[in-house]
Structure formats: structure tokens, C-alpha cells
């Protein structure tokens, strides 16, 4: 009988037939860091993990904005434009990877991790930051390091009375005070407050005040993590955080909206590499200062 509809195109290897023949998929181990593209959706990202879920292997791909999406492991991927079939990492490869990760394990700040290390008894020295968001960001990136060093981060709730905070803390030998200030640029209110506080006697030798140039610590997160080329300029007279939320299309009517926005931003931060160098250097400087063994 003649089949008026023609043969089933899927009944043979269509990739090897015809003038536009395509190569068959090459089996490729799905190791972390390999960048592939899902043919069906166009999602392109680096492999961050492979796991078994619901009786099948799933591969998780992280795109350039930090978003992660899961796909069934197997065919349907492109590697440098060529079709591949992703396969689970072999046992030996997994063992080598685990060994390498154990040797080179790093904290979010880039320091060598110390597995199962107990938190050290808190030092007399402290690091002070302006607000809760600053503290949460420092904790996320440097928390492991600070616990090992025994450094506590405290809130100032603003720097208007920085001199009073220094007097209250009463720094001295073995009790150093490091302070991180937002928007510390020439000509600002913050620069004048810091200038007045830096020389306070007799505490000045035991106090280090540093700052970053950003209006708010939100801005120290690399804009690429939020899908932007740069943080937008918010007009004077508009609340900076509200303006940022409006630019990103997020709700910003209430304080709860602003808190949710910060959680979204903080959630994009994985390691120190997601932060601007102007903040990284200042926090590292403060940690070195308050943990100086010479005091």
C-alpha cells in the first residue's frame, strides 16, 4: 500500500540523511563548569550540579545572571554549537572532583575553608556597620572567616553620632574598633562625620574608619547579578531604594516591599566575586585591623 503521507521522518536517523546532515550527539560527562545550551528552550549556562530526582538524573544550569534551571540529563544539548548527550560523571571522575574540592575548598570570601571548625570565642575587638543590610551582606560573604577569627559585627544604625559610638565602645589595646561607612566620598555628610571622629583621643590609635563610595550597600553588588549593565542613577528627591525597585519593576510601597527587594538582591550574591572591589578591599582591611595579633 502506498503511504500518501510519506515515511515517518523520525523512523530513521534524520541527522545523517539529506544534504543538511547533522552529526549525532557525542556522549559528554556533565562535569561542573561545563557550559552547554538546552536546544529546546535556548537556555545557556554552566553546569553547577547533577543529581538524581524522581528516579531520573537532572542537570542544573546557571546562566550569566545567576539564575539556575534544571533539565533532564541526556540528549538535547549543544556544546560549542555541537550536539551532545550529557551523561552522569563517572565514579572516578566524581572522586577526583571531590578530592580536588576538599583540597581547594573556599569560603564565600575566597579564604581556604576549615571544615567543622568551631566558632572561636569572641574577641574584644568589633566591626561596626551602618545598618542591617550591611551586616547581612558581610555575614553572607565573610561569616565563616569571622566566626573562625571570633569577630562580631555590630550595628550602628547610622553614623550621625559616630563619635558617641566610639566613646561608648571605649576601644583600646586588645579592643579595636573597625567601622564601615556607606557613601564615604568627599563633600558628603558622612565625610564630615568621619573627619570629626577619626582623631578622638585617647581612642584614635585603636579605631579604623573606612568606607565605600556607594549610596547604599545594595550598590556594592555587581549589577550583572541583577541583569543590569550598571546601577541606575536615581534623581535627587527620590528615595534611592524606592527608585531602584521601580527601575527593576519591583513593589516598593511598604517597608516590607523594600525588605523583600533586599532579600532578592542578597540572594544573587554567592561569593566575593559578586561584589565590587571597593567594598571587598575595605572589609578585608577591617578584618585585618581587628585581628592584628600584635595587640
- Gross morphology: elongated
What is the distance, rounded to the nearest whole angstrom, between the alpha carbons of the first and last residues?
95 Å
- SSE string, helix = H, strand = E? EEEEEEEHEHEHEHEHHH
Oligomer: single chain
CATH topology (fold) name of the domain at 126-221 and 269-290: Rossmann fold
Per CATH, which architecture of the domain at 126-221 and 269-290? 3-Layer(aba) Sandwich
Structural class: alpha/beta
Q: What's the number of helices? A: 7
Mean pLDDT, as a whole number? 84
CATH class placement of the domain at 126-221 and 269-290: Alpha Beta
Strand order of the largest sheet: 1-7-6-2-3-4-5
Write down how many β-strands occur, each being a DSSP E stretch of 2 or more residues.
Answer: 11
Radius of gyration over all CA atoms, rounded: 26 Å
* Share of residues in strands: 15-25%
Largest sheet: 7 strands, mixed
Written description of the protein model:
This protein has helices at residues 91-103, 132-149, 162-169, 189-198, 240-248, 255-267, 277-290; strands at 26-29, 35-38, 44-53, 56-62, 68-72, 77-79, 82-87, 126-129, 152-155, 177-181, 207-211. By secondary structure, it is an alpha/beta fold. Among the domains are: 9-95, SH3 type barrels (Roll), CATH 2.30.30; 126-221 and 269-290, 3-Layer(aba) Sandwich (Rossmann fold), CATH 3.40.50. The strands form 2 sheets. It has a 7-stranded mixed sheet with strand order 1-7-6-2-3-4-5, with no helix packed on it. It has a 4-stranded parallel sheet with strand order 9-8-10-11, with helices on both faces. The longest helix is centred in the middle third of the chain and has 18 residues, at 132-149. The protein starts with 25 loop residues before the first strand and ends in a 5-residue tail after the last helix.
Amino acid at each position: 500500500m502506498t503511504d500518501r503521507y510519506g515515511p515517518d521522518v523520525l523512523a530513521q536517523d534524520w541527522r545523517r540523511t539529506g544534504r543538511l546532515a547533522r552529526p549525532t550527539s557525542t556522549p559528554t560527562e556533565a562535569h561542573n563548569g561545563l557550559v552547554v545550551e538546552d536546544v529546546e528552550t535556548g537556555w545557556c549556562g554552566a553546569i553547577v550540579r547533577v543529581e538524581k530526582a524522581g528516579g531520573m538524573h537532572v542537570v542544573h544550569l546557571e546562566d550569566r545572571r545567576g539564575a539556575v534551571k534544571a533539565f533532564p540529563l541526556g540528549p538535547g544539548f549543544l556544546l560549542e554549537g555541537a550536539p551532545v548527550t550529557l551523561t552522569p560523571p563517572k565514579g572516578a571522575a566524581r572522586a577526583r572532583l571531590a578530592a580536588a574540592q576538599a583540597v581547594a575548598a573556599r569560603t564565600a570570601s575566597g579564604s581556604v575553608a576549615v571544615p567543622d571548625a568551631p566558632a572561636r570565642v569572641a574577641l574584644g575587638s568589633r566591626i561596626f556597620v551602618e545598618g542591617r543590610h550591611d551586616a547581612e551582606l558581610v555575614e553572607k560573604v565573610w561569616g565563616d572567616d569571622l566566626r573562625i577569627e571570633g569577630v562580631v559585627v555590630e550595628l550602628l544604625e547610622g553614623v550621625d553620632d559616630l563619635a558617641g559610638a566610639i566613646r561608648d565602645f571605649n576601644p583600646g589595646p586588645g579592643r579595636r574598633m573597625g567601622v564601615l561607612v556607606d557613601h564615604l566620598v568627599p563633600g558628603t555628610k558622612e565625610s564630615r562625620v568621619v573627619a570629626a571622629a577619626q582623631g578622638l583621643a585617647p581612642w584614635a590609635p585603636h579605631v579604623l574608619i573606612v568606607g565605600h563610595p556607594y549610596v547604599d550597600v545594595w550598590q556594592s553588588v555587581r549589577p550583572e547579578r541583577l541583569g543590569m549593565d550598571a546601577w541606575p542613577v536615581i534623581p535627587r528627591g527620590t528615595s534611592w531604594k524606592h527608585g531602584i525597585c521601580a527601575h527593576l519593576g519591583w513593589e516598593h510601597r511598604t517597608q516590607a516591599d523594600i525588605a523583600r527587594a533586599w532579600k532578592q538582591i542578597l540572594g544573587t550574591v554567592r561569593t566575593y566575586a559578586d561584589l565590587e572591589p571597593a567594598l571587598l578591599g575595605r572589609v578585608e582591611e577591617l578584618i585585618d585591623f581587628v585581628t592584628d595579633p600584635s595587640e
